Amino acid sequence: MQHYYTTLFDYIEQILALPEADKESIQQTFKPVFAPKDTIIEAAGQIPHYHNFIVSGYMRNFHLDKNDNEITTDINDGPRFFTSYYHFMNQTESNENIHCITDCELLRISREDVEKSAKTSSTLKDYTIQILQKHLEEDKTRINDMINLTAEERYEKLLRLKPNLARHVPLRYIASYLGITQRHLSRLRKPFSSGHLK
Prior knowledge:
4-stranded antiparallel β-sheet; 9 helices; globular; Jelly Rolls
């Protein structure tokens, strides 16, 4: 299981240096979990109790619209934190589902342990704040893209910035994430290399 923590440390240290004491604390509070493909690890209608770090695998965040269509709002591209952030931080009932698209290796920390870590380590407190800010910025960027970019431009941007999604995530989830139908996405794919998507 040590590779779980090595992946997390490497991810955090892209932003700030981790003291050894914090690494020891992380290994005590973050619990390794294996989630099989198609598992819903957080379901709508519940209060999220865990902050998830994806060591490997692909996950998506989705909710249902008024017609019960699945609307995918987030998909990871490699190791990163992945949670219903607003509801986790505020401990409110979530309208979102966290779905394992593939088998996933995770590290999970409870809301209670997040609070304890913030009190005992200024480094982890600062990092938690930065993670939240990064998530809010990514949300803002996605909203701007949905408003200001055409479907083709959104698809081109995804291929440029997140090429692994095109190789590992089913077409229907990518289409939903881009805000278009699967048929429309199939038409957009034709001018691009057939190697981009399965």
